[in-house]
Amino acid sequence: MAFPRMVRVRQTFPxxxxxxxxxxVAETLAAAGVPIKRGDTVAVxxxxxxxxxxxxxxxxxxxxLKDCGAxxxxxxxxxxxxxGTPEGQLxxxxxxxxTEATMGCPLRATMEVVRVGxxxxxxxxxxxxxxxxxxxxxxxxVKPHTDFKGSIESGLFKMxxxxxxxxxxxxxxxxxxxxxxYEKVITAVGRQMLAKVPLGFGLGIVxxxxxxTARLEAFTAATLEEGERRLLxxxxxxxxxxxxxxxxxxxxxxxxxxxxxxxxDTNVIGRPSNPxxxxxxxxxxxxxxxxxxxxxxxxxxxxxxxxDFTTRKLVDKxxxxxxxxxxITACAPNGAKVPAxxxxxxxxxxxxxxxxxxxxPERARVIRIKNTLMIGEIEISxxxxxxxxxxxxxxxxxxxxxxxxxxxxxxxxLSLTR
Length: 418
Fold this sequence. Notes:
The strands form 3 sheets. Strands 1, 9, 10, 11, 12, 13, 14, 15 and 16 form a 9-stranded mixed sheet that branches. Strands 3-2-6-7-8 form a 5-stranded mixed sheet, with helices on both faces. The chain has a two-stranded antiparallel sheet with strand order 4-5. The chain is 31% helix and 21% strand. The protein is α/β, with parallel strands linked by helices. The chain is globular, with a radius of gyration of 22 Å. It has 2 domains: 5-13 and 241-402, no CATH class; 32-238, LarA, N-terminal domain (Rossmann fold, 3-Layer(aba) Sandwich), CATH 3.40.50.11440. It is built from 14 helices and 16 strands. The longest helix is centred in the middle third of the chain and has 15 residues, at 166-180. Strand 2, helix 2 and strand 3 (71-76) form a beta-alpha-beta unit.
């Protein structure tokens, strides 16, 4: 088969950046009027997403608390992730560089929860270790959610709901989402948490389209809801996007939980990970080929169901138990469906190109990305060149070249310059 020739392109997105992260963390926590006093114990919740500089941000938060005379410890606030076990969740944090040695404070993990209130006629659950602290602090990224659209999506309110509720809460709330809708559940449970538990602060993180820390802002319980809604607007404005639509084929070199909770960010690929709420089908992609699973996913291939073609090397890495725990907890079993599987990258891509209709493969509209988190540099096929000339936000980085495969049929990976 004749493959389309590809051109390396650099995209230009808004690029606000935090230069000195520890200083920014300390300044925003100090400015927020956090009520924590000397001697107080503070449970600092950290999640399981691939957040840029998360170890630096959490570490700076712990340092600031210790400088104030408080006694912080870190606990996993990640619902059912890490296989739904304390050991698995500590392992996830360790992979992100969050350990007792690196943070300089204890880590405490449990799947036990206590009931702290009620919302939508459902109990509100809180991690047992967090319930025993004088204060709770949350550190999380604020971004568009992969399942729904609203004025509050993925961020501190979601962490108060799914993260603090552990496995028991995650199952309950995802089921409630089917009846009430995601935003209503997250908002109702989050407000109950703010009313019933001693939330000392929430530290919101916003990233730019280059997977860099763009803003850090701390809130108290009184300012958190308004603040998160404001940060979400920034996150949506700065979010990276694919430059063209429609596409015949999108080649994704890797998917993974460290890239997106949905394996591939549905805001980038325009395919929902959950069937229960409407989701904008933009961009329009005929076929998606997913080639590999990141090691940081620990076999959790949630979101593989959004691909149409994949490879044996990816499928062989899947821990189906961990994947199903995640997908069934979210009431989205389609996320675990394994697509048509081929022995090599070449076969998977060839098959996708054979299913695009009457367009010759060499003239197909194809985009190739490392993953949905890193799309500042991508490859586009020659079919897009007339449009490329009209786009000042896109810079070609070379001449068209053929897709390069090794002797075993494996696509040679993108070598990004950023």
